[in-house]
Design brief:
Helix content of chain B: 40-55%
Strand content of chain A: under 5%
CATH superfamily of the largest domain in chain A: Transmembrane di-heme cytochromes, Chain C
Oligomer: heterodimer
CATH topology of the largest domain in chain A: Fumarate Reductase Cytochrome B subunit
Distance between the termini of chain A: 80 Å
Low-confidence stretches of chain A: none
CATH architecture of the largest domain in chain A: Up-down Bundle
Number of strands of chain B: 2
Structural class of chain B: mainly alpha
Order of helices and strands of chain A: HHHHEEHHHHHHHHHH
Largest interface: A-B, 50 and 40 residues
Structural class of chain A: mainly alpha
């Protein structure tokens, strides 16, 4: 049900653009108003989510550890997997963010010959990391529509991405890998009954949405009937970037579908699981050092406690204590 | 707010990165599509202008394969006209797009397209040397 719901939503949005920008000719709304609104929602929503997390206290020191804690001098500590210094945490975070290290540890439990066995399972990690890096490459490549002259690194990335020189326009490796990785991530949820049981529209919808963005882009690039005039696209994109929005005539409707689906991704982003983009940096289980035996972690939301120390107590009753021959630390 | 000293700079860096298209274009006038220099004598291209704009890369790719691999060198257009399948002799001939800089490169450069035509083909130089 969740699958069909998500798929229909993406198809429905595409149909909506086909009607709006294609048949009714509302290009100004789909080419200018909606993208600007989506960018605003993304920027403000993202900021609010992160600030919301920043306001949440971390009551306990809860790093997940995967190695030997810093202990006696002759026991070798694991500097990255159980970090106890800031640089250890930085190293751990870098490997988490850039290499998805904790996902690399993913295991699969299976019953083989009547026994429960755990085995290494890297497919999710592989598809995940391929998806993220190809998506990043594709986003950076799109800067050619938003810069003039196009910076060298964008040009270089294009050349590397198309280095196989298959066909014309050349096939980008990232296009192929991105779609393959997305399909793996989608099919993985569909074929396993356990995963299917815990999958929600919030899991399927971003997959279908990004798949829709990718496929509409691929159709525009490689399939003659969907081709759009790239120069007009750049005029529109530069218009958005320079706040002089214009809608050039005659850009095919596939472009507006592509742009609308991406706008929806931006607008949906702050309210979704996709916020792990910001959230990964704010996970207390990863970004706290495992140093609770060295540094006292004070819960920041502890209610202020009114304390009356022994020194104050002695100040209050010193004379009476001396009269009663009780020992005092400070003589009167 | 907790750890504002780390979270706020991180957020500012992120917002700076994602708004790159906007601040890198600050103060720029609107972008205009580059003007192309069209041939003076020749009126018609191999196929219609609109079709060529969308499909010239496919056409040239097919021409290359047909000429180099199958030794077929004559192309019949939709209108029945015949052309020599040659980038240098047909497209870049002196009657047509003799100057690559003012025709091919204008769009390709603006869109960061680096066609690999010129990995093999020599750009014919016209009257400059």
């Amino acid at each position: 049900m969740a699958v069909w719901y998500s798929l229909l939503l993406v198809l429905g949005m595409s149909l909506f653009v086909y009607l709006g920008a294609g048949l009714l000719g509302l290009q100004a709304i789909f080419g200018i108003a909606i993208p600007y609104a989506a960018i605003l929602v993304f920027l403000i929503g993202f900021t609010m989510r992160v600030l919301g997390w920043a306001r949440s206290p971390v009551p306990f020191r809860i790093p997940t550890t995967a190695g030997q804690q810093k202990s006696l001098d002759w026991i070798k500590p694991s500097k990255i997997d159980s970090p106890y210094t800031t640089w250890g945490v930085v190293g751990r975070m870098a490997m988490e963010v850039l290499l998805f290290r904790s996902l690399f540890r993913n295991t699969k439990a299976e019953i083989t010959e009547g026994k429960l066995a755990y085995g290494s399972n890297k497919w999710l990690w592989l598809a995940g990391i391929l998806f993220h890096y190809t998506f990043l490459t594709i986003v950076i490549r799109h800067l050619r529509f938003f810069t003039e002259p196009v910076p060298y690194f964008v040009q270089a990335l294009e050349n590397i991405d198309g280095m196989l020189q298959i066909g014309s326009p050349v096939i980008y490796q990232t296009d192929v890998i991105l779609v393959a990785a997305l399909l793996f991530l989608l099919i993985r949820r569909l074929v396993s009954p356990q995963l299917r049981y815990i999958s929600l529209p919030a899991d399927y919808f971003p997959l279908f949405l990004i798949l829709g963005i990718a496929l509409s882009g691929i159709m525009m690039r490689y399939f003659a009937i969907f081709k759009v005039d790239l120069m007009s696209v750049k005029v529109l994109a530069m218009g958005l970037a320079t706040f002089n929005p214009i809608v050039p005539e005659g850009i095919g409707v596939m472009f507006y579908i592509h742009l609308f689906l991406f706008s929806m991704l931006l607008a949906y982003f702050p309210f979704s699981k996709l916020m792990h983009l910001g959230g990964v940096f704010l996970s207390p289980t990863r970004n706290l050092p495992n140093d609770s035996r060295m540094v006292r972690h004070v819960n920041p939301w502890n209610a202020p406690v009114k304390v009356h120390t022994y020194e104050h107590y002695e100040d209050d009753f010193r004379e009476k204590m001396i009269e009663a021959d009780l020992p005092v630390e400070k003589q009167a | 707010m907790y750890n504002a000293g780390k979270i706020i700079p991180g957020l500012v860096i992120f917002l700076g990165l994602v708004t790159f298209p906007f601040w890198s274009n600050l103060g720029r006038a609107a972008f205009e599509a580059p003007e192309l220099v069209f041939p003076e004598t020749e009126e018609e291209c191999v196929e219609s202008g609109d079709w060529m704009r969308a499909n010239h890369m496919i056409l040239l790719d097919d021409w290359r394969d047909l000429a180099v691999r199958d030794n077929l060198r004559l192309y019949s257009s939709e209108t029945g006209k015949r052309f020599d399948m040659s980038l240098t002799k047909t497209c870049l001939s002196s009657q047509c797009h003799a100057n690559k800089d003012t025709f091919c490169d204008r769009c390709h450069d603006a869109l960061a397209i680096a066609p690999h035509c010129w990995d093999c083909h020599v750009v014919p130089s016209i009257g400059e040397e």
